[in-house]
Description:
Elements: H1 6-14, H2 18-39, H3 47-58, H4 63-74, E1 83-90, E2 96-103, H5 106-119, E3 123-125, E4 134-143, H6 154-164, E5 168-171, E6 175-180, H7 185-194, E7 201-208, H8 217-232, E8 236-241
Antiparallel strand pairs: 1-2, 1-3, 2-8, 4-6, 4-7, 5-6
Helix pairs in contact: 2-3, 2-4, 3-7, 5-8
Amino acid sequence: MSGHSKFSNIRAKKEKNDAAKGKIFTMIGHEIALAVKAGGPDPSNNSKLAAVIAKAKANNMPNDTINNGIKKAAGSMEADNFEELQYEGYGPNGVALIVKVLTDNKNRAAADIRSAFTKGKGSLATQGAVSFMFDEKGQIILDKEAMDDLDKDFDTLMDMAIEAGAEDIQDEEDSYVIYTAPSDFDEVRANIEKQGIPMAEADVVMVPQNYVSVTDPEAVKGLRRTLDLLDASEDVQNVYTNWEEENDDSVQ
Length: 252
């Protein structure tokens, strides 16, 4: 797995602007509605909802907003309107992209994604065309700065994570990244939460098996254009790519 800092990218995205933060809160609100519909409003009996709540807290969503979202979802049919979809495609230089969508309008979502790939000089592909290049993993990111007051070094965290069922933990520049099998994610996340350790991110993600470096300036420009447009879409939940962007920062 890559050794570049994943948390710095997450933090930059979160702090980009208020509109981006608002989109994250809106998307998490939709996830809460889906989770409540699937398993009820009690997170102690609904592991999917518990995971979404952890994600909401990692994104600094206020507790009142979380609780109000659960109550609203429990008393409405809002979740019936939303669908979870996945698109796959290629950016310039054959960079693989997986786009996770949560939408109440498939036509709008499809138009946004098609436009992003076209304007970035990439192309959409059929289901399964690139997903085989990724592994589904539980990923929990701990911000080192937020852990300054905790008496837990890397070895302590590693022992705790492995004992809870994690597959691996990596010491990166500004974060610790814990990986789990998808089936073990909820248990590991809950264990970390019980220890009072703040999580910067906690979700099941698609991790590239290998990363691709891109040095052609036009290709980099197209990739960034595609990612910016996807990020701007109200329906796009997550985007996963095997582009090793950090190594290409000098390319403008």
